[in-house]
Amino acid sequence: MIVTENLTKRYGAMTAVDDVSFVARAGAVTGFLGPNGAGKSTAMRMMTALTPPTSGRALVLGREYRDIPNPGRHVGVMLDASAQHVGRTGGEVLRLVAMQLGLGKDAVPAALARVGLSAKEADRRVRNYSLGMRQRLGLAGALLGDPQVLILDEPANGLDPQGIHWMRTLLRDFADRGGTVLLSSHLLHEVEIVADELVMIGNGRIVAQGSKAELLGSRGSIARSLDAPALAGALVAAGFEARPDRDAVHTAASTDEVGRAALASGVVLTELRAAGSDGLEEMFLQLTADHAREGDAR
Ligand SMILES: Nc1ncnc2c1ncn2[C@@H]1O[C@H](COP(=O)(O)OP(=O)(O)OP(=O)(O)O)[C@@H](O)[C@H]1O
User: Fold this and answer.
1) Residue 161 — pLDDT band, cuts 50, 70, 90?
2) pLDDT: which is higher, 109 or 218
3) Best probe residue, ligand 1, of 15, 33, 40 (max atoms within 8 Å of C-beta)
4) In order of start, what are the domains of the chain with their CATH numbers?
5) Which helix (H) or strand (E) holds 117?
6) Which helix (H) or strand (E) holds 54?
7) Domain ABC transporter spans what residues (predicted)?
């Protein structure tokens, strides 16, 4: 389990992470979402003792990371897959980690197999690795010590669709065996499929958090109509949040409620459906637009 309590980081006048509190529980994949510059990496660096918090704290498995003896045996961390020594082979990178962790020599081939890197690829220098291969190597390093917790910053970056599918399966399996997974992304769709819980962050602050089911379930409907402004007006008059967007209306009302409002106001509906994941995306864009750095809103 990972717990952050009022985690805050200031760089001079700039607050990169602002009072962030959440729990990533064991047996679940928690998606840590936010636009570029939202503060995800800084928060993860604080969780792994690479950056001291200005205030607040992060506990991993009940302790601050720096107090965990041989932390690599408990917490697998991949913060920047491109930060590996490019002059070493993938195998050398992993053998060094294995030595630091006090692992036997079988650990490296097992980790390579787990991330789908062949022995031949492990003999190549990292400089000749694609970004996707570096991600796999970074993940192999994180998994090497057979940890109970994974903290991964944008692990799907550079992976092809098959690689993304593979990564999801691996993380799902890890969580299903009782592990804790925290993974960051600036792409909702990337984490939506695999995450059980979502924490959304914008401009250093948490803007929404909860189970995926909760966040999806509470997001109302999308309706298309021959007169979207009239439909939105009818919904607002009935006490629901509603916003027209060209011929569509996004609303917090359920599909039943939209149907009734349309009937009562005599507006023709051309499409009506629960917002589902579109609703989550809508919410993500809305929530993060206000908090995104200039030029990052979408
Ligand atoms: N060492 C530092 N000194 C000053 N500002 C910093 C430092 N590290 C991060 N920041 C700032 O803190 C903010 C949050 O950065 P962070 O890298 O945590 O965001 P992020 O959500 O991980 O973004 P991305 O998806 O682009 O990696 C940014 O505005 C960044 O410029």
Assistant:
1) confident
2) 109
3) 40
4) 2-210 (3.40.50.300), 220-274 (3.30.70)
5) none
6) none
7) 2-228
